[in-house]
Amino acid sequence: MAEDPVSTDASWVDDTLFTGRPTDICLRLPEPVDKATLHRLVGAAQARLTEAGLRPGGAAALRLPPSLAYVVNLLATWRTGAQAILLDHRLTDHEVDKALRRLVPQVVVAPVRTGGGALRIFVDVTEGVTAYSDRPAGSPHAVIQLSSGSTGPSKVIGRTAADLVGEVHRYTRIDGVALPGERIVLLPSMVHVLGLVGGLLYGLHAGVELCPPERLSGDAILAAVAAQDSPATVLGVPFHIGLLASTVPSGPLPQLKRMTTGGELVPAAVARAFTDRYGVPLGNMYGMTEVGVIGTDLYGAHRPAIAPAPGIRVRESGGELWVSCPANPYVGLADPTRWADGWLHTRDAGTVDPGTGLVTVKGRLDSQVSVGGLKVDLTEVEATVAELPGVTAAVVVWDDGITAYVQTDGSLAEDTLDKLLAERLAGYKRPRTLHLLAQLPRTTTGKLVRATSALRDAAS
Q1: pTM, whole model, 2 decimals?
Q2: Domain AMP-binding enzyme C-terminal spans what residues (predicted)?
Q3: Nearest-CA neighbor of 283 among 176, 170, 197, 167?
Q4: What are the pLDDT digits (tens) for 402-420?
């Protein structure tokens, strides 16, 4: 057997994540789970994984929904000195089989029984562990994640234990994050980087309780905020902002400290609706699976700009944002158009203010198109569409012309939409084709899908 490429030194798990007192509460599901209980459960899971064939330097594929079982098996995999391959539980069997054939873990952890209902944030899972191969992990990373796939096929991305520990410590230096003794009301999936590092790993390290709501509804999120007296930060994505902006609180919420969002750009109208309703800061995070958090504006003072996170350098080159990234994060052949010489090419359009260093993200680089020799920024068109009355979400792409896919609340007709756009956009900027849908397709992280083939399928 080849030499194990994964570092088998698992001390970082205890040194970074099992800090604090054994009696400290780290999770509320809604019953409290303290550090001692979590440590005991992780130890038992390590024994099960080892019995099934997981070895230091190997890999375990986790196909689990958000649950205590997911947290336990993730930490157990790392404490074994193995690599964790995170597979979103919403992937199809075909997608999972394809990933397993490519990544070849030693064991696969998947539900045997799941309870709690489709709208539960955390579910009750009984997991099973099955052997898959006897091969060591194919790369030296502690975690393997698949990109969201919002613009095309998912990329395989790896991060080392040092990367994860470095990002956890980066969070401790960001002004405005939840502090020890406070709570994070966790909404994004822990399979993806915001929920994984910004929620789970930072929370365990810093002594911040993770309190997912029982269900994915505005009322349940507010109930989770009100459940304890300690200050609470709601961590989510733009979809969750819209959910809360349309929810009327039943009473005062002095515990609500702020909401922090990552993922897509937040439409200005949605941000205003949230802050008008709750009167607390709406913080903004910009990050990527490849490097984690890149920049933040947790007080909403610079919207839409953000300040680079501690230790992160951002530069603009030819209208594209580049981010410092010491090693190639992609598993497989290196792509010099995405990473080279310590810089990750984000494929996001943006600017860096030379005086303040503030970064403004302007959307995908491929959103710049030419119509009759005139430049059009599809991000601008999309923002204009999204802010119209009756529109709940919008995606604007170039598909043999400017094409808008629009999710409405049912009150908007196509001719009305076209008329409203004619009042707001120059003729060469207006969508040539409009598609009104009851529901736009989204990725497993809640991002709007921008692949034209998927949008065409949804429209048909």
Answers
A1: 0.84
A2: 380-447
A3: 176
A4: 999 999 988 889 999 999 9
